Amino acid sequence: MIRTLNIFFSNTYFRTVGLIFAVNSILFGSWITRLPEVQNRLGIGEGELGIALLGLPLGSVLIMPFMGWVIHKLGDGKATLYSGVLFCVVSTFPVLAPGYGWLFLAMVMVGVATGSMDIAMNASAAEVEKRYSQFIMSACHGMWSVGGMIGAGSTSLLAWLRVDGRIHIPILGLLLLIGVIYLRKILLSIREETVSDVVFSIPTGPLFGLAVIGFCIMLGEGAIADWSAVYLKNTLKADAFYTGLGYAGFSFTMAVGRFYGDRIIESWGSRKLVLAGALIGMAGMVLGLVTPDPLFVVIGFTVAGLGFSCLIPAVYIAASRMPGRVPGASLAAVAGFGYFGLLIGPPVIGMIAEFLGLRAGLSVVVMLLLFVIILSGYVRFK
Q1: Which H or E element spans position 253?
Q2: CATH number for the domain that contains residue 364
Q3: By the 8 A CB rule, do 248 and 156 touch?
């Protein structure tokens, strides 16, 4: 891992794109961990919170199919810069929402911003990979996991110290906005040379199988991100100290696995990695859901993070290098479909939890990982 980090941080472009991934996840991990606080302040149940979270996929659905076209018009880096600025601003809105309707509207706006930023920054990573003939996608996702760990872990500590999220998140958003603007010179020089007339990106042909796997994996990631804190706090009645540790542990092992991921993908191939990762992820989720002890739940989510770590990087690499396809448009199609899973999963699980309990809702992740194991034997990865 040290060798990977040395290579990654020695290159200005690698480092810049990686920092953008970290900015996205620091904010995401921070405001997501504040959801129990928002839920309690507004006096809403899990079903109502799940419906509010539907605003995220709604916002993403509005923008994601057009991101392939946007990226080719603006360039990968410019699209990343603009969407990053937008995300830093609108990520503060959910914790500031004065009522339920405003919360839903805030979720829609966050969905638009985070959906466009996710596709743009992954396209930038793919373009830099091509420019330097060096795998960096997994390392960039490792930076995303480090950011998630920092965001969730620091927010858990601040919540324990009783720092109000309505103060914490806006200040964090402003600081990260300054950071994104500081990186603008490098970002603006990242542009894919391939010309494409694709306006509406959808996964077709061999990309469809990759998109389905991405959907399942990212739905699981979204479920753990949005519901792990609620599960520990409201279902298990865990101490406030444990509230953010489930997602922090998940993000930590995601980061460790992803910094090894580029070398593993190169030596194993994407198919074997997806199979092994899904098996480990299943084991961690089962451990986290069968025990009432918060410590073992945190351990279970942490093991699951190791399994999830390299799954999406492997899918994105396969999509961006699919023969006969324009990399940016292919990545937008697969990432958009997969990211829809990240966003649609939490509200669906919230609705299941309303009737059957949150443990049953999170069990959906186990079933999806089993489906990924089966499907990986049939999908084309190169």
Answers
A1: helix 245-268
A2: 1.20.1250.20
A3: yes
| CA of residue 321 relative to chain centroid, distance | 21
Asked whether 31 and 95 are in contact (CB, 8 A), the reply is yes
Geometric angle at alpha carbon 256, from 252 and 257, rounded to 5°? 115
Q: Is 357 left (phi over 0), alpha (psi -120 to 50) or beta?
A: left
Looking at per-residue pLDDT, the higher value among 152 and 87 belongs to 87
Count of domains for the chain: 1
Give the confidence band of 174 by pLDDT, cuts at 50, 70, 90: very high
Average pLDDT over residues 365-381: 88
268's tokens: 């194993």
Tracing tokens 């200040």 back to the chain, one arrives at: 171
Residue type for 332, please? A
CB-based contacts of 149: which residues, under 8 Å, 6+ apart? 29, 248, 251, 252, 254, 255
Report the pLDDT value the prediction gives residue 149, as an integer from 0 to 100. Answer: 78
- Which residue's structure tokens are 């009522």? 99
Indicate whether 2 belongs to any domain: no
Length of the chain equals 382
Tell me phi and psi for residue 134, to 5 degrees: -140, 125
Q: Is residue 369 part of a domain?
A: yes
- Residue 197's CB is within 10 A of a number of other CB atoms, namely 8
Q: Is 171 in contact with 91 (CB distance < 8 Å)?
A: no
Does the residue 208 lie in any domain?
yes
Read off the pTM: 0.79
Distance CA(183)–CA(352), nearest Å, equals: 42
Q: Is residue 75 part of a domain?
A: yes
pLDDT, tens only, 20-71: 999 999 998 898 888 888 999 999 987 888 888 888 878 887 887 788 788 8
Closest by Cα among 38, 11, 19 to 229: 38
Both tokens of residue 252?
Answer: 């930590």
**Domain span holding position 286:** 7-190+201-375
For residues 331 and 64, is the Cβ–Cβ distance under 8 A? Answer: no
Classify residue 355 as exposed, middle or buried by CB count within 10 Å of its CB (0-12, 13-18, 19+).
exposed
User: Residue 8: which of 134, 164, 146 has the closest Cα?
Assistant: 134
Q: Burial, 271: exposed, middle or buried (Cβ in 10 Å; 0-12, 13-18, 19+)?
A: middle
